Amino acid sequence: MDIRNIAIIAHVDHGKTTLVDQMLRQAGVFRANQQVQERVLDSNPLERERGITILSKNASLRWEGVKINLVDTPGHADFGGEVERILRMVDGVLLLVDAADGPMPQTRFVTRKALALGLHPVVVINKVDRADARPHVVHDEVLDLFIELEASDRQLDAPFIYASARNGVASGDPAALDRLASGETASEGFDLGPLFEAILGYVPAPTGDPTGSLQMLISTLDYSSYLGRLGIGRVERGRVRVGQEVALLSLGEPGTVAQEQARPRRVVRLYGFEGLGRIELEVAEAGDIVALAGMEGVEIGATVTDPARPERLAGIAVEEPTISVDFMVNNSPFAGRVGKYVTSRQLRERLHGEVERNVALRVEDTDQPEVLTVSGRGELHLSILMETMRREGYEFQVSRPRVIPKVGPAGERLEPYEELVVDVPEAMLGTVIETLGPRRGDLLDMRNPGKSRVRMRFRVPARGLFGYRSEFLTETRGEGILHHRFLEYGPWAGPLAGRSRGVLVADREGVAIAYALWNLAERSTLFVEPGEPVYEGMIVGEHVRAGDLDVNVTKGKKLTNMRTTASDENVQLEPPRVITLELALEYIEDDELIEVTPETIRLRKRALAAIDRKKAARRARVANGSP
Fold it and tell me: Under DSSP, is residue 261 helix (H, G, I), strand (E, B) or coil?
């Protein structure tokens, strides 16, 4: 049977998962009357809540007798590790670009990876029915991007498809743009057929030799409570059968390895992908994407081969992490009240287990047994891990993120820089440039795509973006759009200004009282509400001025039997600021921690007692030479 293996890559929110929904529906994966939720491949609860793809998913469909294996990939730069390993399983990519936004930072990142691997792209200019769509301009921008990324002649000849994924229609003819933009939905003779034809005609079939010895690269992992760990990948050469004896080769240099390095394994179960589910197979051959059970100790990048000919494939190259945080055991006064897993052993096992399937993550032990350093691609990458663990019942504390520096060839200190793309109304242009100046942001280019909005591209140290998203949304009144991705390592930018305002710190344990919070509301933004338990050293609000302030939020009004002519004022408080993990990671300073429990996210000082904080501040002043 003819096969096409293709991955769908795009910048976040360009309609990738919506297009997959329509492709599956029109290919007959769902019954005509079947009720299917939107974004069916976003099965993870966090994905549905946030509206982004976090984990790659496998699905398949059939079109004119050809099986098309689809792999949906994440669209956010922080999950680039998922994209990098998935691209090794496919022969082509479906590059989705918004007809109004054009190529964005993640588009550039994933396209560079795909072109470097020699994959064949099919370009889909999506959302041509938008009022501000500019498909012809975006067509030229994509070609410019291909030329900039040194695409081959074959890749430059990629077919361009104009589509409205929401309506399920597509065409390769620019003359049909008016009909596509009219909002017409899929109908007889006007559907996604041109897209399927472009995939079949341009993306090559797998070229592996099905008669050779077995060779398969493990690109991703899954887990079954019955069968244990499953290794998923594409069969590069030969055939694999249920019950077959195979050899598992760990990561290393490609080529033939010694027999003693090959770990013998037996294929217990063999699964293929059909529609949205898995089906059991007896045999699979070169080109098939399959899942193997019985591979104890399997890891991403490992090679499954014929024991008589143990040849290792090149491993999966994943870019190094750029940001790290410290995970530690929760030692606050409220520790262990709601968490199911609270010990350092449980925390260590969970984090080391995450590394086995999250290849862009690093976990390192420190000189303190209860503290582990976790490194990732960005704040979102780390916050998704924290949120997942929190929902599983883990309780822990997290430090402020910090960048991972490097040493240059001349011994100089280097730090990661990000490419920041902002899209703002023209009236807010000066405000954005002014706020990025102290953060060492350099303006690379600026253009006006129309509709009174300006798009700017900056080069900013990764440290300079800590806490910037919330400030950006405030300064642009929620009208700005911001995206960033790792760009390069560059010279150390020097000291950067931190948070400009201090915090309110509770000075005793108790329950927050409305009367006490009302007295503080004029000079702060509160993080807690009446009735919420607090402890000494817990951060309960943001001060309007620089410098921290110790406050008593448990103080109630003194009651007497004296009557007055004036009635008591009605206590009315504004809703407190909701503390999310992303906000907390951006907000805290070096002397603060985030307490994460299954029910609550709290901010606290490292030193809970006020006298300990004063001593630490005095020691810091002496160390800096200040009186």
Answer: helix
- In the prediction, which pLDDT does 185 show? 76
CB neighbours of 477 closer than 8 A, spacing ≥ 6?
428
Task: Using CB atoms within 10 Å of the CB of residue 232, give its burial: 0 to 12 exposed, 13 to 18 middle, 19+ buried.
Answer: buried
- Predicted pLDDT at 566: 47
**In this structure, is residue 106 part of a structural domain?**
yes
Residues whose CB is less than 8 angstroms from the CB of residue 275 and which lie 6 or more positions away in sequence, other chains included = 24, 29, 59, 60, 61
- What are the E-state strand segments in 210-318? 215-224, 228-237, 239-241, 245-249, 255-256, 263-266, 269-274, 277-280, 283-285, 289-293, 303-305, 311-312
Domain-embedded: residue 606: no
Instruction: Name the token pair of 284.
Output: 């699979």
Question: Under a CB-based contact definition with an 8 Å cutoff, are residues 350 and 356 in contact?
Answer: no
pLDDT of residue 506: 92
What pTM does this model have?
0.77
- Surface-to-core class of residue 504, CB atoms within 10 Å of its CB (0-12 exposed, 13-18 middle, 19+ buried): buried
Is residue 35 one of the residues assigned to a domain? yes
In contact, 76 and 486? CB cutoff 8 Å = no
Please tell me the predicted confidence (pLDDT) of residue 78: 57
**What is the maximum span of the chain, computed from C-alpha positions, in angstroms?**
98
C-alpha 358/C-alpha 318 separation (Å) is: 11
pLDDT at 324: 92
DSSP string, 240-260: EETT-EEEEE-SS-SEE--GG
Spatial separation of the C-alpha atoms in residues 353 and 456, rounded to whole Å: 40
In a domain, 400, yes or no: no
SS3 at position 169: strand
Rounded to 5 degrees, φ, ψ at 579 are -95, 110
Query: Which domain does 273 fall in, by range?
Result: 215-312
* Residue 362 vs residues 321, 376, 388: alpha-carbon distances, Å: 7, 7, 17
Contact assessment for residue 325 and residue 382, using Cβ atoms and an 8 Å cutoff: yes
User: d(Cα 624, Cα 627) in Å, to the nearest integer?
Assistant: 9
Residue 64 sits in the same domain as residue 153? yes
Low-confidence ranges of the chain (pLDDT < 50): 39, 42, 565-567
In 451-547, DSSP assigns E strands to 453-461, 481-491, 503-506, 510-511, 524-526, 533-534, 539-543
CA 151 to chain centre: 27
DSSP state of 366: -
| Average pLDDT score, the chain | 83
What's the confidence (pLDDT) of residue 52?
60
- Specify the CATH number for the domain of residue 307: 2.40.30.10
Name 305's bridge partners: 215, 247
Single-letter residue type at 567:
S
From the list 452, 337, 341, the residue with the least C-alpha distance to 396 is: 341
